[in-house]
Amino acid sequence: MADLHFGKINHFRRAGIPVPAKANDKNTETLIDLLNEHAPERVIFLGDLFHSHYNEEWVVVGQVLRHFSSCRLKSVAPRCHCLACPRSSGIDRPGALPRFQTAEC
Question: What is the strand order of the sheet 72-76 is part of?
Answer without folding.
Answer: 42-46, 72-76, 101-102
